[in-house]
Design a protein that fits this description.
Number of strands: 0
CATH topology of the largest domain: Farnesyl Diphosphate Synthase
Low-confidence stretches: none
Number of domains: 2
Oligomer: single chain
Number of helices: 10
Order of helices and strands: HHHHHHHHHH
CATH architecture of the largest domain: Orthogonal Bundle
Strand content: under 5%
Radius of gyration: 19 Å
Shape: globular
Helix content: 55-70%
Length: 251
């Protein structure tokens, strides 16, 4: 991970350009002009864009989660809210909170898998997204979690992250019937691919960070083909209520 030395001015620039785009003003930057068009065409709630910027701000402040709830809040701001925005682009109503919750769950599942996979990489960059309370629970001193004596304990926490990711992935899958066929196919494919990453990290235990965990092309193809069948049969899926114990995005 590369450290950014000018985070504050970058954050200010992103904020200003986002505000201009959401106000309907041409920005002169392709990414933000695209945001202006998409937001106008889809009725994208402005709060989602602001919530994403808040995630950038957390990283700019080198923020670290203290509790499990803090972890989910971070995952929402950097990934869950992206799921919400993508759902709206796919045709979900901005007022369909039930489906947006499922979309948010998918983003959180992705981020939890990423955090589990990238613990060593984040440590090299001076970051740690494992809740401090979890580290204390495992009696791992601050900043020492990648040291060899603590690898087995760290593996326990990585599996916990993967297990949490699986819960959010399962919840997200229940939102597939609300999506058009192609969108559902894409979402279910991505859910399977990222879910496999989390499971591989958990299965490798203390060796999870010896080599970066990836999914092969063959695995990706298998997941995509399986998701094709799931998307075609999504109308017959049994919709289960969203588990009450899952952290819920801010309204």
């Amino acid at each position: 991970m590369t450290r950014v030395t000018d985070a504050a001015p970058r954050l200010a620039e992103i904020t200003a350009k986002t505000d201009a785009a959401l106000a309907g003003d041409p920005v002169g930057d392709p990414a933000f002009d695209a945001l202006r068009i998409v937001a106008a065409e889809t009725g994208l709630p402005h709060r989602f864009a602001h919530d994403l910027i808040a995630g950038f701000a957390l990283d700019a402040e080198e923020w670290r989660p203290r509790s499990e709830a803090d972890l989910y809040r971070y995952c929402y701001h950097v990934a869950g809210v992206v799921g919400c925005m993508m759902a709206i682009v796919m045709g979900v109503s901005p007022h369909d909170d039930a489906t947006l919750d499922r979309a948010c769950d998918l983003g959180i599942a992705f981020q939890l898998a990423n955090i589990a996979r990238d613990i060593e990489e984040d440590d090299r960059g001076g970051r740690c997204y494992i809740p401090e309370e979890w580290l204390v629970e495992m009696d791992i001193p601050p900043g020492q979690h990648m040291k060899p004596p603590f690898r087995k304990r760290l593996a326990v926490l990585a599996r916990r992250l993967a297990d949490r990711a699986a819960l959010y992935e399962a919840s997200a899958r229940a939102g597939a019937p609300a999506l058009p066929f192609r969108s559902a196919w894409a979402v279910l494919s991505a859910a399977a691919i990222y879910g496999a990453i989390g499971r591989k990290v958990a299965d490798r235990g203390e060796h999870a960070w010896d080599h970066r965990v990836t999914t092969s092309r063959a695995d990706k193809l298998r997941f995509i083909l399986r998701a094709l069948g799931e998307a075609r049969g999504r109308a017959g899926m049994v919709i289960v209520p969203r588990p009450a114990e899952l952290w819920t995005r801010p309204r």
